[in-house]
TrEMBL record:
It comes from Nonomuraea typhae. This is Homoserine dehydrogenase. Belongs to the homoserine dehydrogenase family. PANTHER family: HOMOSERINE DEHYDROGENASE (PTHR43331). One of its GO terms (molecular function) is homoserine dehydrogenase activity. It catalyses: L-homoserine + NADP(+) = L-aspartate 4-semialdehyde + NADPH + H(+); L-homoserine + NAD(+) = L-aspartate 4-semialdehyde + NADH + H(+). Keywords: Amino-acid biosynthesis, Methionine biosynthesis, NADP, Oxidoreductase, Sodium, Threonine biosynthesis. It holds the Pfam family ACT.
Length: 428
């Protein structure tokens, strides 16, 4: 089985290392050896983490992926182009493709799946979400006989590390980000992570698999963590909560649509996701028959991601040897993605208010006027420091937003000091 590798960076170099170190075991598991046919790189003379025979290196990626003797193409260069064109070219020639490209799958997965269907090869992408954690194949295959209702999880290690450090040490967002960058958990430009783009792409892929419907990153409601302050984290901690950036994919109550969103949320410290520390990932899957399943592990890094890539390589190589094919894209349900305003959530709200009689009654009146009921309320401070802290029952996001807009107009409310969605069971 001849393999063309696109990219020899952090992940690509680890793929080569594992192919070498585990060559005997891989041959036994597949029934044929994996042989590196070529490695496409941008610059030939660059120093790499692993030694590669110079004769294998090429800057002509298209020629490599369309070579007649290549069986499997592994894409780990990332981005939209030229990755899309190269993958489509390979699939069109009947090659099987293994990719870790979450951004491309979330933006234009339909094109890739169609190319795989017409070309007759496999398209596997376990490494695109949650690194080494076996997650996509259970959704695509193990749970194919079940009815998945919800997927909830932490799918970005950078933001989880930052929020964990803010919670454990009281650090500010900027200080925690600098520490993450120093340790290599965050890029020099962390925008994709801290603004939620990375998690949104992964949420789109998870939702598509879980609900047998096409979902793109553009359809995912996205909020990042840049506005989270040390005060927010301390307030959540005092109430027995922790703040996490969550990817949430859920069927509507009538089952006719799905909501897909990424945003910071408070979860009780008793919730299993609350204990996910540092740069680790964890995902809950709730299915009708299987119940609650939790997948936990290293969500990023060269070796963990390469582990997922190798697993896919073994699967597609076995398929090619036996003349079989892996599962194609399943979109038969064609569920629509409903807007965030229709999503039912709970909220934690902090209001800076005037310290005088009747304030709570007027605030409660605004919540009632917008059909949002209050679960808990407490008053903190006095005088200029007076604050009301409320947690709502579940209501539509549109109703909660309208309530916040109305509260800002009240003369007794000096400021809406903080609004945070709440996930999971438990009392504030």
């Amino acid at each position: 089985m001849k393999v063309a590798l696109l990219g020899c960076g952090v992940v690509g170099s680890q793929v080569i290392r594992l192919m070498r170190e585990q060559a005997g075991d891989l041959t036994a598991r597949i029934g044929a050896p994996l042989e590196l046919a070529g490695v496409a790189v941008r610059r030939l003379g660059r120093k790499r983490e692993v030694d590669v025979d110079p004769e294998l290196l090429t800057t002509d990626a298209e020629a490599l992926v369309t070579r007649a003797d290549v069986d499997i193409v592994v894409e780990v260069i990332g981005g939209i182009e030229p990755a899309r064109s190269l993958i489509v070219a390979a699939l069109s020639k009947g090659k099987s493709v293994v990719t870790a490209n979450k951004a491309l799958l979330a933006e234009d997965g339909a094109t890739l799946h169609e190319a795989a269907r017409t070309g007759g090869g496999d398209l596997y992408f376990e490494a695109s979400v949650a690194g080494a954690i076996p997650l996509l194949r259970p959704l695509r295959e193990s749970l194919a006989g079940d009815h998945v209702n919800r997927v909830l999880g932490i799918v970005n290690g950078t933001t989880n590390y930052i929020l964990d450090k803010m919670d454990s040490s009281g650090a500010s967002f900027n200080d925690a980000l600098e520490e993450a960058q120093a340790l290599g958990y965050a890029e020099a430009d962390p925008t994709a992570d801290v603004e939620g783009f990375d998690a949104a792409a992964k949420a789109a892929i998870l939702a598509g698999l879980a609900f047998h419907s096409r979902v793109t990153a553009e359809q995912v409601h996205r909020e990042g963590i840049t506005e989270i302050t040390a005060t927010d984290v301390a307030s959540a901690k005092a109430m027995g909560y922790v703040i996490k950036l969550l990817a949430i994919c859920a069927r509507s109550d009538d089952g006719q649509s799905v909501g897909v969103r990424v945003h910071p949320a408070m979860i009780p410290r008793t919730h299993p996701l609350a204990g996910v520390r540092e740069a680790y990932n964890a995902v809950f899957v709730e299915a009708e028959s299987a119940g609650q399943l939790m997948f936990y592990g290293a969500g990023a890094g060269g070796a963990p991601t390469a582990s997922a890539v190798l697993g896919d390589m073994v699967a597609v190589a076995r398929n090619r040897l036996t003349g079989a094919r892996g599962p194609e894209e399943s979109t038969y349900a064609s569920l629509s993605v409903h807007p965030m305003g229709e999503t039912v959530t709970r909220c934690h709200v902090a209001l800076d208010v005037a310290d005088k009689p009747g304030v709570l009654a007027r605030v409660a009146e605004e919540f009632a006027r917008h059909d949002v009921s209050i679960q808990t309320v407490r008053q903190e401070g006095h005088g200029d420091d007076a604050q009301l802290v409320l947690v709502t029952h579940r209501a539509s996001d549109a109703a909660l937003t309208a309530t916040m807009d109305a509260l800002r107009k009240l003369d007794i409310v000096r400021a809406v000091a903080g609004v945070m969605r709440v996930e999971g069971d438990g009392q504030a």
